[in-house]
Amino acid sequence: MKKVIIIGAGPAGLTTAYELLKDNGKEKYEVIVLEETSAIGGISKTVKHGNNRMDIGGHRFFSKDDEVMKWWSTLMPLQGKNSFDDDVLGREKPLVNGGPNPESEDRVMLVRGRVSRIYYLKKFFDYPISMKPETFKNMGFARTVKAGLSYLKSMVFKREETSLENFYINRFGKGLYGMFFEGYTEKLWGRHPSEIDASWGAQRVKGLSIFALIKDMFHKLFGGKKDNKKVETSLIEQYWYPKYGPGQLWETVASEIENMGGKIVKNCQVKGVVCEDNKVKKVVCDTPLGEKGLEGDIFISSMPVKDLVEGISGEKPSEEVLNVASGLPYRDFITVGLLVKRLNLENKTNIKTLGNIVPDCWIYVQEPDVKLGRIQIFNNWSPYMVEDPQNTVWIGLEYFCNEGDEYWNMDDESYIKFAISELEKMGIVKAEDVLDAHREKVKKAYPAYFDTYDEIGVVVDYLKSINNLYCVGRNGQHRYNNMDHSMVTAMRAVDCIKGKIDDVDLVWNVNTEKEYHEKKEEK
Asked: Which residues have CB under 8 Å from 25's CB, separation 6+?
């Protein structure tokens, strides 16, 4: 029996463990998952605060990969629906108006309607930007003319895509880029888009452009039915969502892993990796009982590449590899949950919502005079996330920062007051309407694409050369992957371990091209 040590109980680590243990053939695996924290799910966990729940960062369950969609629905079937359908809303009332009590019969996926908008100039714009008359009305005549002319120019004079700035301008023109991409991107990364590698756009934006938006608009105008598998991901209209948030699914996976004989050890932080003969021999962990070493035959890492490489001893990596890994940047994350009586935002859409609040899952905040990046409205992700969704609104305020900066080091009470003051400045809530609040901090939430990132190939080649090590997931590959991409890296790693494929490059090649890597090739 081979002993497999998995670092991290996020989507990638848990998918690896589950896939190794299910349908065991002739070769059995002893699987041990080591988790630094006391929670399951990584950044995809659900945080409980009283009888309300927070989704850290927002997680839509949608993939163009049939394998992933089937995986999710097997573990957590859809509630009363077999697939995506024409009911764009997908908003059912809670069965009970009280604290969540997720028994096994509540382990279901809801079909949700995707509504995300941009808040700019104290007005709502569709996200992605649409070609509706309301968009041009909100922009005003001068901005509309400027945006149109700059887009026409971008169609003729293409820029070399040496930066994220040029990537956006090529697709939207300098006018729209300046209004809807430049400031928000700098909020998110703390760097101007001209300093960020264009490959981030290739992964996250893919085929989105003005042309794609116009094509989508005419498709709707003439009554065409949207195929979520073919449409640009940012334009999907429906997605799945666990009844009690993403953490519910990953807690279910963790339970299944333990039922199949796997072990999950919480509060166990991997601090070092010992390599001998071009293999990992053991990992060294900090535990509540002190430092411990754990040997194994195969090792799966979803820990940050920087920490992994810097922690390697025995056969150490070269100075070049160490220098590149040490320079890899990350962006950290703070979210503030606020329970409020009401939002001072009028629902001017034709979408009916519980409590008649605005229908958005996310509101992207483009206003330049606040640090706030996005607002989540948990009532709209799932009413079961909220104790009293008919009479209160439970929102998440998302901020991007660097570990150790003034915002990261601010105490909870001061930060919550700061967050409330920003919402007051925007006219979205009144301080006296705030009933409760909670703050969460997440380290290394976003692998960043600047500094030494353009040399990351040196580190990847080194990690691939360690024969019994597989790096999976967002931080494990230093790639800003979606949850489904992270899962696919894990699935391909398991294929390597079980001998179904013999090319470790397939683990690293997930989501590296401009279309989904997981999209099935036509035979």
From this structure: 498
Task: Please give the C-alpha separations between residue 278 and each of 3, 297, 301, 316, 468, in angstroms, as whole numbers.
Answer: 18, 13, 16, 10, 8
- Residue given tokens 């301008």 in the structure block: 169
Start-to-end CA span in the chain (Å): 37
| Separation CA 469–CA 142 (nearest Å) | 56
What does residue 504 show for φ and ψ, rounded to 5 degrees?
Answer: -65, -20
442 in Cβ contact with 333 (< 8 Å): yes
507 vs 64: CA distance, rounded Å: 18
How far is residue 226 CA from its own chain's centroid?
Answer: 24
Instruction: Look up the pTM and report it.
Output: 0.87
CA pair distance 309, 292, nearest whole angstrom: 19
Give the residue carrying structure tokens 């700098």. 186
Name the amino acid, one letter, at 352: K
Domain borders along the chain are 2-39+250-328+452-508, 127-232, 330-447
β-strand pairing of 290-295 with 279-287: antiparallel
Q: Cα Rg for the chain, rounded, in angstroms?
A: 23
pLDDT tens digits for 247-305?
999 999 999 999 999 999 999 999 999 999 999 999 999 999 999 999 999 999 999 99
For the beta carbon of residue 70, count every other beta carbon within 10 angstroms. 11
Q: Mean pLDDT over residues 501-511, rounded?
A: 92
Task: Give the residue among 245, 448, 240 at the shortest CA–CA distance from 337.
Answer: 245
State the residue for tokens 């079961």: 384
448: which residues sit within 8 A by CB, 6+ positions away?
A: 189, 191, 196, 328, 329, 330, 331
**Phi/psi class of residue 402: alpha, beta or left (left: φ > 0; alpha: ψ in -120 to 50)?**
beta
Buried b or exposed e, range 195-225, using 16+ CB within 10 angstroms: ebbbbbbbbbbbebbbebbeebeeeeeeeee
CA proximity to 84, closest of 223, 235, 240, 232 = 240
Domain 2-39+250-328+452-508 fold is FAD/NAD(P)-binding domain (3.50.50)
Query: What is 330-447's CATH number, 3.90.660.10, 3.40.50.300, 3.40.50.11540, 3.40.640.10?
Result: 3.90.660.10
pLDDT digits (tens, 9 = 90+) for 55-70: 998 999 999 899 999 9
Contact at 8 Å (CB) between 94 and 384?
A: yes
**Contact 90/110 with Cβ under 8 angstroms?**
yes
